[in-house]
Fold this sequence. Notes:
There is one protein chain. By secondary structure, this protein is mainly beta. It has strands at 2-5, 8-12, 19-24, 27-32, 35-44, 47-48, 54-63, 66-67, 75-76, 79-88, 95-107, 115-127, 138-147, 157-167, 176-181, 184-186, 195-200, 203-205, 216-223, 235-240, 243-248, 252-257, 259-264, 276-279. The chain contains no helices and 24 strands. The strands form 2 sheets. A 6-stranded parallel barrel has the order 14-15-17-19-18-16. A two-stranded parallel ribbon has the order 21-23.
Amino acid sequence: MKTISNQSFGGERPLFESHQLRLENVTITEGESGIKECSDIEADHCRFEGKYPLWHVERSLITNCYFAPGSRSAIWYSNDMKMCDCIIDGPKFFREMHHLELQNVIINDADETFWNVDGLVLNNVTLHDGTYPFMGSSNIRIDNLKSDSKYVFQYVKNVEIHNANIVTKDAFWEVENVTIYDSILDGEYLGWHSKNLRLVNCHIGGEQPLCYAQDLVLENCTFDPESDRAFEYSSVKADIRGFVKSVKNPASGLIIADSYGEIIIDENIKAPADCKIITRNKE
């Protein structure tokens, strides 16, 4: 493997069609497509400033690198990438990819990041700001995620999440086959139109959570005291610990909680309209 150290490259496509290349303390300055149509690339302690620096790259390892705000849309159409101990300040990263792994990465502008990625593994990742991260991605495994981005995890499939703290709105819309363990999910309209969404040991906040859901499961979960109008038109099996402010028109299933502020069943409920709502210890 050839090594390039302590150099800068700018302009358009300076390292086009490079293969078996290691970059150490290299800066990709203003310009476009610094590393494009490449394979077997390693980059350590590098700085990326220009647009689209890593497109159509096969097999890469990116460590201890910094991506400046100008490095927008930096990594698309690249497969088999691992990134560790990096900071990203540019938007619209990671699209149309297969087999992407991030460990100890901070993304400070997560706008439209992780779109249509198949095979995504995140460990100790932080997302700030931006909208619609993870849109349309699938086969995702996550441990220790912190995110305050809006509209996260829409239209995703086959997801397992552990130890997340997600503050958002409209999260997990129209998802399929998603399981979340030991996490805080705080935001309006959580999980609407989902299929096979399962929450285990999670705390739920925000208004109108978990409506229009199919085959929704909650195990040993808690609700914020102000989280209201839950489960409207959902088929649900829920074991809730503590108080639920209000439940509204669940379509079917079973809900058990310690207490309720209000149970709303009115003329607008949808068939089969046979959900059992039970107070624990009063069954």
